[in-house]
Amino acid sequence: MRIKRFSPKLILTVVATVATTLVVHADDKPTRAKVDASKLPPASDKQGLTYTADIKAIFEKSCTKCHGADKQKAKLRLDSLADILKGGEDGKILEPGHSAESLLVASISCVGDEDDWMPPKNNKAKIPPLTPAQIGLIRAWIDQGAK
Ligand code: HEC
After folding, report:
1. How confident is the model over 111-141, as pLDDT tens digits?
2. Does any ligand 1 atom lie closer than 6 A to the CB of residue 68?
């Protein structure tokens, strides 16, 4: 039987891979929502999405009553791109390029803990859940860098 020694190059590759994985996951904050990505509505294939042109109106209709100038539930404002990128009391709510791992997407898709669904179930303002098409646009916008 021939015993093959591990080449230094292979060992380096393994070490580098492990190190990268550790670094990538070191910021395991709420942005990294642990959800089953297959349960999320798919991202839209629309290109060139921006907050101002495509996303602002959705948040204004369904979110800013509680996350805007009057009220800042969870210390979160969703009425400007800067505030959205800043996040809320638990930290960032999205990670540009990674919609499936963004807390924002988990919340609006109503997967996971019911207390985290947004807008909240049975809210007094009777704001309905976002549609799969709206969620798909928000996902694509995040995947394209949340510009
Ligand atoms: C009727 C009020 C209301 C509306 C409308 C609403 N939210 Fe919320 N939101 C809350 C409350 C209350 C919390 C805090 C929940 C908690 O701490 O359990 C919250 C928390 C959040 C959080 C977690 C922030 C953090 O740092 O913990 C996110 C993300 C969020 N909302 C997104 C949205 C989005 C996106 C919309 C619109 C689609 C929306 N919300 C609409 C009341 C609302």
Report:
1. 888 999 999 999 999 999 999 999 999 999 9
2. no
Atom 24, ligand 1: residue with shortest CA distance: 88
Instruction: For ligand 1, say whether the CB of 89 is within 6 Å of any of its atoms.
Output: yes
* Cβ count near 84 (within 10 Å): 23
C-alpha 77 – ligand 1 centre gap (Å): 9
pLDDT computed for residue 28 by the predictor: 47
C-alpha span between 49 and 113 (Å, rounded):
29
Best residue for ligand 1 mutational test, from 29, 60, 63 (most atoms within 8 Å of Cβ): 63
Distance set, CA 9 to CA 5, 16, 23 (Å)? 11, 10, 21
Residues 109/12, Cβ–Cβ less than 8 Å: no
- Predicted pLDDT at 15: 66
What is the average per-residue pLDDT within 62-89? Answer: 98
Cα 40 to Cα 22: distance, rounded to the nearest angstrom: 26
Q: How far apart are CA 142 and CA 27, in angstroms?
A: 18
